[in-house]
Amino acid sequence: MRKKLQDLTIKDAFMFAAVMSDAEQCRHLLELVLEMKILEVNIVAEKTISYHPEYHGVRLDVMAEEAGTKRRFNVEMQVKTETALAKRSRYYHAQMDMDALLTGETYDQLPDTYVIFICDFVPFDSRLYRYNIRNVVRETNELLKDGNQTIILSTQGTNPSEVPVKLVNFLKYVGQDTDEAETNDDYVRLLQEQIKRIKQNRDWEGKYMLLEEMMRDEREEGRQEGQERMSQLILLLIKQNRNEDIAKAAADRDYQEQLFKEFNL
C-alpha cells in the first residue's frame, strides 16, 4: 500500500469502509441509490463470508442490515474493470442468503437482498449511470418476487436526465481523483467533511499506518494471500473497535492465526 492516508479518496477500500462505517452515511447512500425509505441500519464493514475451505470465499466491502425488516444491502466499490459483474452478483446474493437463513427456518423467511456495485468504469456499452437488475418471467414479463435486486452504478454514465441529480452528483464525485473539488451538493459536502475528519483523526491514521505496515511485511515475505487476509482482518477489527487486538496481532503471529480462525479468513 503506497498511498498515505491524506492521499486516499472515497474510491480506496480503506476510506470507503471508514466512511460507510457511519450508519447514517450508509443509510443516506442506500436511499439515494434505491430511491426508497431506509430505516435505521446496522453496518458490518469488510464482512467476509466463507463456509468451507474448498469453496470460494467472498469479501463484502460494506454490508448493512435494516432494523426491523432485516433487508440486507451489500455495497461494493469497483475501481478496476470487472468483466464478470453479473456472475459475481449472483454469487454474492447466494452467499448472503446462506448467511441469513438459520437451520429450521423456511425459505419465505429469507430477507430481501440488494447488491450494489459502484463502478469507476463503463460496465456496459449503453453507458448508463444506473442499472436496476431483477429476475423476470420471460414469457409474461412479470417480476419474479425472489427478493433479489442488483444495482450497478457507473461514474461514467451519459444519461444525467434519466436519473436523480443527486445520484449523478455523487457518482461524479466518486469518479474524481480528489475529495476536495467544490460542490453545491449537500450529501457530497457531508462526505467531504467526514473524509476530512477521518484524515485529521490520529486514531484512524494509526489504524491505516498499522495496516500499511503489516501489509508491507507480508509483501516482503511474498505472501499475497496473507496480504489479503491481513487487510480483511484489520478492517474487521477496526469496525469492532478492537484496538488492542490490532496491536497484539501485529506483534504475535500465533495470535494473528487465532483471529483468522475467529473471522473465518
Task: Provide a descriptive summary of the structure in words.
The protein has nine helices and six strands. By secondary structure, the protein is of the alpha/beta class. Strands 1-2-3-4-6-5 form a six-stranded mixed beta sheet, sandwiched between helices. Helix 3 links the parallel strand 3 and strand 4. Helix 6 packs antiparallel against helix 7 (224-239) and helix 8 packs across helix 9 (253-262). The longest helix is centred in the last third of the chain and has 19 residues, at 202-220. The radius of gyration is 19 Å and the shape is globular. It starts with 12 loop residues before the first helix and ends with a helix. Mean pLDDT is 84; it is low at 49-57.
Query: What is the SS-derived class?
Result: alpha/beta
List unreliable stretches of 5+ residues: 49-57
Number of helices: 9
Roughly how many Å is the radius of gyration?
Answer: 19 Å
Strand order of the largest sheet: 1-2-3-4-6-5
Q: What's the N-to-C terminus distance?
A: 20 Å
The gross shape turns out to be globular
Strand/helix succession: HHEEEHEEEHHHHHH
Q: How much helix, percentage-wise, in residues?
A: 40-55%
Strand content: 15-25%
Total strand count, please?
6
- Mean pLDDT rating: 84
The biggest sheet amounts to: 6 strands, mixed
